[in-house]
Amino acid sequence: MNILELIYPKTCGMCEEISNSYLCSKCKLKIKNLLKLNTTKYKDKCFNSHTYLFKYEEGIRDKLLKYKFRDYSYLYKFFSEIIINNCNLKNNYDIILPVPIHKKRKSKRGYNQSELISKEISKNINVEYSKDVLIKTVDTVPQSTLNQHQREKNVLGIYKVINSQIIKDKNILLIDDIYTTGSTVNECSKVLKQNGAKLVDVLTIAKD
After folding, report:
1. Region for residue 162 given its phi and psi (left: phi exceeds 0; alpha: psi -120 to 50; beta: otherwise)
2. Which of 16, 67, 95, 128 is least surrounded, with the fewest CB atoms within 10 Å of its CB?
3. Cα(31)–Cα(14) distance, rounded to whole angstroms?
């Protein structure tokens, strides 16, 4: 145990009790019962496939809301551990990218929830990670407040690629927290493909 863990001991993301892991042995069965790991391949979207681990319901919805909106940033360790233990990501990708949020929203929240998870997964599977490729240029209204048609319009033209040489001819894993209509990840994937990406797969914690 390092000094930081003595000051800030590990806490199970599910039961929120001090543990030797971010998912304690007691809660592993709960997670196993909630797990709905699924991969769908697409020919009519700009990304090639979408993988999710949970449906956006029950205890997972509560955890995601806490993680995203209530300053439970440490839950990135909990979600990352579940992803790493259940998804075979090694040797499939050249680079991992998070879906970006606007700099104003990141400043207000203090972190990008997808960025924290992307960085942790990158470190654990030894795949390059970058937050300096895809950026969000417009601070739009939250997608969660809109219907499907409004969501599609809300994301048009708001993402931009910088440092495009980093993604040229690369296989990319794009990470976000929740998939609802797919409008956000599709627009991100479109911009990535336009700037030279070879393949884009999407991974989210949950699907609504």
Report:
1. beta
2. 128
3. 8
CA dist 176 and 114 (Å) reads 5
Euclidean distance between CA atoms 138 and 159, whole angstroms: 8
Residue 6 has pLDDT above 70, yes or no: no
Q: How confident is the model at residue 98 (pLDDT cuts 50, 70, 90)?
A: very high
Cα 196–Cα 202–Cα 205 angle in degrees, nearest 5: 150
How far is residue 167's CA from residue 172's CA, in Å, rounded to a whole number?
A: 8
Tell how many helices (H) and how many strands (E) occur in the chain: 8, 8
Burial code (b: 16+ CB inside 10 Å, e: under 16) for 1-37 equals eeeeeeeeebbbbbebeebeebbbeebeeebeebeee
Question: With the CA atoms of 71, 77, 83 and 84 taken in that order, what torsion angle do they form, in degrees rounded to the nearest 10?
Answer: 160
Query: 3-state DSSP call for residue 177?
Result: strand
Q: SS3 for 96?
A: strand
The alpha carbon of 59 is separated from its chain's Cα centroid by a whole number of angstroms, namely 18
Q: Which residues contact 16 (CB under 8 A, 6 or more apart)?
A: none
pTM of the model: 0.92
